[in-house]
Amino acid sequence: MQRNELTFPKSTFLGQISQESWNILSSAWSTHLYSSGQFLISADDSNSDVFFVLRGAAKATIYTDKGREISFISVATGDCFGEFSAIDNSPRSSSVVASGECLAASLPAEKYLELIKTYPDMTFAALSILVSHLRHLSKRVVDFNAKSADLRLREALLELALKNTRNAEEDNVLIDRPPTQSELAAFIFSSREGVAREMGRLRKAGIIGREKRSLRIPSIEQLRKTIANSH
């Protein structure tokens, strides 16, 4: 697969590396197509391969002793995951599950470590991703302790909307195949019933809308205002 066949956001690992690094990576990895709900990696797995999402998305999740799902980070096109185990040689700390059809590439840990030690652009990309994860998780801890579940849901919807915009000026956004209410609940540390109630209120207020299997955000600016008014 050629790089010009794919588009990666600049904030992702694959969006930051050079063409030379892409050529080296793509010659060393193996690709696999995963169906929706299929596990790419499982928690406590001893495998230490590093994965790169070429198309589609996935979510990192863990399950409590009572079987409750807690989803704490989304993995989108261009992102990599599994590098923690490659770096510290410890078992996986979470499972990663495909959100819809997902094309991913896997690279042996030894090769990943060799490359990030050799190529500065890969080193910087790896460091920037780790810093991004740390900032994201730190924010979620603060949000959980300082914000209501309804506010966390609105902010999650805003994050989804912004990820689906084609340019900075776009205000009306259609989110194709959005997360289910259960997935949103897992992401914001709430219940499905609580998410359903708040989604219903937002629909009545015209802040969100449903179009078949898609979610419509008629105005990102209006959603921002509801968030600002909730503080």
Protein architecture, described:
With 231 residues, this protein is an alpha+beta fold. The chain has two domains: 3-145, Jelly Rolls; 147-230, Winged helix-like DNA-binding domain superfamily/Winged helix DNA-binding domain (Arc Repressor Mutant, subunit A), CATH 1.10.10.10. The chain is 45% helix and 21% strand. It contains nine helices and eleven strands. The strands form three sheets. Strands 1-8-3-6 form a four-stranded antiparallel β-sheet. The chain has a four-stranded antiparallel β-sheet with strand order 2-7-4-5. Strands 9-11-10 form a three-stranded antiparallel β-sheet, with helices on one face. Helix 7 crosses helix 8.
CATH superfamily of the largest domain: Jelly Rolls
Beta-strand residue fraction: 15-25%
Q: Indicate the CATH architecture of the largest domain.
A: Sandwich
Classified by CATH, the class of the largest domain is Mainly Beta
Please outline the major beta sheet: 4 strands, antiparallel
Helical content class: 40-55%
Morphology call: globular
Name the poorly predicted regions.
none
Task: Count the E strands.
Answer: 11
Number of domains: 2
Give the class from helix and strand content and strand pairing. alpha+beta
Q: What is the mean pLDDT? A: 89
Strand order of the largest sheet: 1-8-3-6
The tally of helices reads 9
Radius of gyration: 18 Å
Query: How many angstroms separate the termini?
Result: 47 Å
The CATH topology name of the largest domain reads Jelly Rolls
Along the chain, the helix and strand elements come as HHEEEEEEHEEHHHEHHEEH
Domain HTH crp-type: 147-221
Organism: Paramylibacter kogurei
Keywords: DNA-binding, Transcription, Transcription regulation
InterPro entries: cNMP-bd_dom, cNMP-bd_dom_sf, Env_Response_Regulators, HTH_CRP, RmlC-like_jellyroll, WH-like_DNA-bd_sf, WH_DNA-bd_sf
